[in-house]
Design goal:
- This protein has 22 helices and no strands.
- The chain is an all-alpha fold.
- α4 crosses α5 and α8 crosses α9.
- This is Transporter.
- InterPro entries: Na/ntran_symport, SNS_sf.
- Belongs to the sodium:neurotransmitter symporter (SNF) (TC 2.A.22) family.
- Keywords: Membrane, Symport, Transmembrane, Transmembrane helix, Transport.
Amino acid sequence: MSNTASPQATPEAGPKRETWSTRKVFILAAIGSAVGLGNIWRFPYVAYENGGGAFIIPYLVALLTAGIPLLFLDYAVGHKFRGSAPLAYRRLHPRAEGLGWWQVAICFVIAVYYAVIIAWAAMYMIFSVTEAWGDDPEGFFLGEFLQVSGNVNIGFDFVPGVLIPLVLVWAVVLFVLAAGVQKGIGRANIIFLPLLLVMFLLLVVQALFLPGAGEGLDALFRPDWAALADTGVWAAAFGQIFFSLSVAFGIMVTYASYLKRKTDLTGSGYVVAFSNSGFEILAGIGVFAAVGFMAHSAGAPVGEVAGSGGIGLAFIAFPTIISEAPLGTLLGVLFFGSLVFAGLTSLISIVEVIIAAVQDKLGLQRVPATMAVGLPLAVLSILLFPTTTGLNLLDVTDAFVNNFGIMAAALVAVLMLAYGFRALPMLGGHVNETSSIKLGLGWRIMAGVVAPIVLGYILVNELIARIQEGYNDMPAWFVGVFGWGMAGALIVVAFILSLIPWSRRSAANHPVLDADANTRKEAAR
């Protein structure tokens, strides 16, 4: 395994690296990745439960001191070393390759189950026209629609109403990815992201005119200043930022590697970060205006109907709102359509991390790499999740891969770059070469000190809670295999993949794309 090109290699020896046509296309794609399902159904409830309007203070602090610094770190690694996550980290230092594969493995697992939620949303967009859930949205969702089994295990009793839209979701995603970075991913985001924004703006406007909307907004934005003294509130703010910005699991490393060499990285990063946060606040307004209407109709306080966000909000609470609201059909189509478009742009970015890694490792062209990655992903997704046992599997896998996959990988990445390889000065210098806003000592402190402290705190707290409390009263064997076992397996798989030699056709042996010797020596010091 060598970091240098063979003497016979020529600039045409490997696949030519694709690029975004303009910085604007990259920004749209990065925003499309960051704005996902969590922005719509997670942020409003995290804010509501952690101080309301006062939560904006720790949220902004988390954005500025950890979210944006880590975003710049991902940009720097991807843009300087011109590769997928495994190749970029390998070029930074040979011992860092496994970190890239860890991020690829995380994306693989997330992609397998993320697609089925988009399929649910697509069906509910259709259900909104007739309000198919009737008077019992919860019973409809868990019973008639998902046909959830009472047994917590893995079964293969397929639900046609989920299976068919899931196949279509994968067909769309693979079609987009096979078309390439600019013609596929770029064009898809140029179409999907404006549609998402228009649909969600219309939803927010409609929700604001519902009776009781003011009560919902008051519940969301009324500040509880005492909450600022609670370390749990600050941890929630940092956790929300990490999950919503698409940092630390390979996406932004991969997307930045497609940028042209002279690109304003910090300017692009600020646009992406503040656009993502702006959408989250917009989602909070729309969701809680609708929840306020629900509370008004039920004659109950907002707190009693607010629930806890997530799948329950989207597929149980919102159908209740749609059934009672004026022009409810339009509200439903807009809400679930927004979930579909937000989910698609995020899923495309997640799968692209895996495709880029396989392309670089094996030297494959775009279409063969897409099929080599996409078909196994689609088959696994279709086998495991449109079934009567799929919901419990999704629940456990999502909880553990997010908390003990993404968070742990982020912590290890920051520690390795900051202290293992002492790469922050070199990476900051690379960003400063072309960026309008320069990175200095403050950025290195935020990325190398603040971020790992907060990540470590959140990770340890979550670890203690899961050990003491288990997970949602599910059987220990099920949580052990698909929760703890899955999180641990990601690390093992990453280590194994890092041992596999790179193909002679791979981008690692391409003399034009490979990092020069001086860069490697500098990073290895």
